[in-house]
Fold this protein.
Amino acid sequence: MAFAVKWVASVIQIGGYSATAFGWTPANLYLFLVGLLGWFAVGVMWKDRAIMLIHLVALAVMVAGMSSG
């Protein structure tokens, strides 16, 4: 399960980078959000606190940025 989630989340995040490059907002933010949640889930499945931490921090920063604009 983790294998599938990490690859789907990675592809979605690459979509977020691509959307950013082409100026497709807010689609880029939603793609990043889904990718971050997917990688956080992988961290939980693997019990990897470093993966969970970095994606929780990224998620918090994204949500803060989205709510301020």
Q: What stands out?
A: The mean pLDDT is 95. The radius of gyration is 12 Å.
